[in-house]
Amino acid sequence: MKLHEAPSPNARRVQIFMAEKGIDYKRVRVDIRAGDNLSPEYRAKNPAGRVPVLELDDGTFLAESVAICRYLEALHPEPNLFGAPGLEQATVEMWGRRAEFNFAQNVAGAFRNITGIFKDRETTVEAWGQVCAEVASQALRMFDERLAKSAYLAGDRFSIADITLGVAVDFAEAVKVIPLRELEHIARWRAQLASRPSWSAK
Amino acid sequence: MKLHEAPSPNARRVQIFMAEKGIDYKRVRVDIRAGDNLSPEYRAKNPAGRVPVLELDDGTFLAESVAICRYLEALHPEPNLFGAPGLEQATVEMWGRRAEFNFAQNVAGAFRNITGIFKDRETTVEAWGQVCAEVASQALRMFDERLAKSAYLAGDRFSIADITLGVAVDFAEAVKVIPLRELEHIARWRAQLASRPSWSAK
User: Fold this and answer.
1) Cα–Cα–Cα angle for A127, A129, A133, nearest 5°?
2) Of the candidates B44, B75, B106, which is a domain's last residue?
3) Cβ contact A131–B145 (<8 Å)
4) Partners of residue A87 in chain B, C-beta under 8 Å
5) Is the CB of residue A187 less than 8 Å away from at least one CB of chain B?
6) Is residue A80 a part of any domain in this protein?
7) Domain tally for chain A?
8) Interval A31-62: pLDDT, tens
């Protein structure tokens, strides 16, 4: 099994997931700054041109972080990170999607539109980046309120929803385009995430 | 079981899903134009303030269309719309996410930023809406290429990925903010979707 990856929040989500499961894999570095992910060769692996992509031993390519992780969960059910089928699984997915749509997507929108890092390949609108930064910052309150009542995002145990939000918050802090509020419950939860061996997976 | 809903692409995704499964439910109309989804009462059901929300008989509220559908799939496994666990499920999720991130999100971004329909509650940037429209239009080629080789988005049978993309394409056509290309394979596939009884679920 090979992971085609680049230093990016989405690759990190899969790296942490694999570390939690104890899955061993080979790495293939994709040079995004050089545009390798937009080459015809790479697009044959993933027509959307994104990282990461999981290459299975039979040559099948699987893209999209959550799809990759769900595949790995089926192969390696323990520790369970998607929840038990039924309400728990749906709750994990609900919080994972809130983390993506309300926070992570806005962090990405702020980063790309404010810094113009991919200006050579996409149209950026700085005013939109500022809107994204503000929306992402506001959204943190919803997660803080949730974490005031719940040890982890989807309930009393760690799940893929925590990986999604935690990686996005770390990235937002690193790239400094979001006014990160000092929120008590998010701070407590981030310290818990950082104490997991998987959190430093690279 | 009650579905809190409003006429919207996300509510329609769940309505079609439930029609495919033959699930009976009550409807509660949420008036989004009047901002009912932003009231404290509604936010107690869904802090993200979005529709739809599924209310279970025990009073639990479940939000996010795909999370709702996955819960319903666990309760009513047939017809299977998420794929069998393992590679098929991951492939359905991969294509469903591509439909969301590459197309549906950009259609929503174009619609909201170009028309300013929610200007009373969010900052809109028209130039960004134009970027979204172009990106969404370009993304259709990837789906057309996929549908040249595959009967449905995730393989040889209908899945939730088809619901996600099909509803978004219908919406894009209805609101007229996207230059919809005449793409042969998408046209063939849309005709197949429209012929399903579930496609006219309301």
Assistant:
1) 120
2) B75
3) no
4) 56, 60, 62, 71
5) no
6) no
7) 2
8) 999 999 999 999 999 999 999 999 999 999 99
Interface contacts (A, B; CB < 8 Å) = 100
Structural domain containing residue B22: 2-75
CATH value at residue B149: 1.20.1050.10
Query: Roughly what angle, to the nearest 10 degrees, separates helices A160-175 and A105-115?
Result: 20
| Option in B87, B93, B105 nearest A60 (CB) | B87
Instruction: Please indicate, yes or no, whether residues A142 and A185 belong to a single structural domain of this protein.
Output: yes
ipTM of the complex: 0.96
Q: Which residues of A are less than 8 Å from B101 in CB distance? A: 48
Residue B26, C-beta contacts closer than 8 angstroms, at least 6 positions apart = B1, B2, B3
Interface touch A68/B60, C-beta < 8 Å:
no
B123 φ/ψ angles, rounded to the nearest 5 degrees = -80, 130
- pTM value is 0.97
